[in-house]
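Q: I'm writing a short explainer about Glycosyl hydrolase family 13 catalytic domain-containing protein for a general audience and would like to include a description of its predicted shape. Could you first generate the structure from this sequence?
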Amino acid sequence: MSPFLISGGDPLRMGVNQTPKGHNFALFSDQASLLDLLIFDQTGALLSRFSLDPLRHRTGSIWHIEISGLPEVFNYSYQVKGVSGPLQSFDPDQELLDPYAKGISGFEYWGKRTGLPMRGMWAKRDFDWEGDRPLGRPLKDSVIYELHVRGFTQAAEVENPGTFRGVIERIPYLKDLGVTAVELMPIHEFDEFDCPFLDPVTKTRHKNYWGYSSINFFSIKSAYASDKSPMGDVAEFKAMVKALHNAGIEVILDVVFNHTAEGGEQGRVINFKGLSANSYYMLDANGHYANYSGCGNTFNCNHPVVKRMILDSLQYFVAELHVDGFRFDLASIMSRNEKGEVLAEPPVLESIAKDPLLSNTKIIAEAWDAAGLYQVGSFPASGRWAEWNGRFRDTVRCFAKGDKGLTAELATRLAGSEDLYKHSQRNPYHSINFITSHDGFTLMDLVSYQNRHNLANGEEGRDGEQHNLSFNFGVEGPSEAPRILQLRHRQIRNFATLLFISQGTPMFPMGDEIGKTQGGNNNPWCQDNATSWLDWSLAEKNAELLAFYKALIRFRKAHPHLHKRNFFTGRTNLSSHLPDISWHAQRAWEPEFDHGNNKLALLIDGYQGPIKKDQLIYAALNFEPEPKHFEIPQSSSGWLKVLDTYNPAPFIAGEIKPAAEPHNLRLEPQSIQVFVRD
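A: Of course. Here's the predicted structure. Afterward I'll give you a sentence or two in plain language.
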């Protein structure tokens, strides 16, 4: 007699869910004619096979069953039978993974396998949140730090390197730095062995280090947990979120809904392909996979089933794991329909923006895809979506390296990119300002290399962005020449200063604050080694740079008019008799937007209506090759010099001194000065 009791089950809750009677299973497959559920113990031994009767266990395209008597911990998979055709093939012997599985067996250890097949995992784990909730910090007050869980701590002196617990051990560093949110590169389960390329020197196979190749969207990368017990990864992830929240730091996840780990026609079958390929993917009439992602397949995000799954995933991570926000990789793919056509009002994007459970959740789009669709400033926003502002990145890089004709555009970017966001009822903080990210050069490499150096990736140097907008100051790569080093470090300080005095939400990747280098590799997605890992010895070697970043973040937080809620108007305030922002060049009130120069100055008023909210802030930028003299507007006494990127020591030390000659400021080449006045 079977120890298990079965009933029809509930089609409304997908995946595995505990019920008063046992466990309910629900799975979508619209073309399956028969479906088997296989239950295994932790050793991989088959406990039972349940063949689902379509008359009893199928409602529409949802297969469902409730089972009583299952053990507290078990693994499971499905086998599906059906009629194969151009758009769908079935292999009745292939075990398929539940797209809603919240745990996956076999991936517990980085770089090695346990021998267990890839199967869904169930284990109930209690967790005491002790009242923790998502923090809900306004986006305008955020400072985002992009972080790779393994790379952040793999080379650190922590007890649990490369794990969520390792991140917990480094929270004091994050808190001292001053960031308000960490943006974690992908933590959905992925296969690090999913990389075909070899190291050209050692001939060993690279690993998928970055993880932009999700197996499903509910399970967590189990190798990132030091707790190897069943569902220990979920418990440890929760502990990390809770600890970060206790430190006042939010958690944003980088999610990859544009493609999956299954690849194209020749790719492997894990779950989605075997259940309903033409629902989950964009296919043509012959079953060929569209490739708007550049990774072999394209997720069909606006299909009703896929849209529901994406919403379910986001809701799960917010409600159950207390995540504060999401950054959507190649999010423009989510604006395409099943034919790849761009939709004006994509259902999935609108649903995310208007979902009541996600109404306080940060949603950030990488507003382009790998097929040329570029939607920065035109992403279907519903008034909610923030965007990685690639226009900010490119303008700042070009202006800083001396390109001409960009003064007006730089002013627009510094003021929050009103031209991109106001028309869609968005605000300055919807512009996620960045100069570097995981994708491309580090900031140190941006000032040290003209060209990418990606041979180590195993693709003969063909991979990675060619259009880097970088400048090496005359030497490609490392240099010991004092003059070159001084120029490079000053330029890093310039970039950081522009980032933190700009309206919008600043973001920077781990290590920029201590001079992290990747040796000119601008696409180290497969470099699970010192190329990518954060070298913590740089914190001591480049202590001045780290102190400069800390001081900049403190300065930004202390001045609310550097992160305003609304765009500047240019109108004169009746109390201060100044516009809320004004533009200048060497002479006050005479900006030179059309003179082919690289000089600019700005003055931000401290008043908001009749109330004084902040000090006056004046910043002068000289990216010319020779010194220039600037005149501060209203250059009477009272101006205090806060920052000079040519001489950062006083700023780092907190020394604020009166401006010697506010009507005749000398700015050294490629430098920025910032002043305040009550």
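A: For your explainer, you could say: Residues 5-123 form a domain with the Immunoglobulin-like fold (CATH 2.60.40.10).
Q: Perfect, that's easy to follow.
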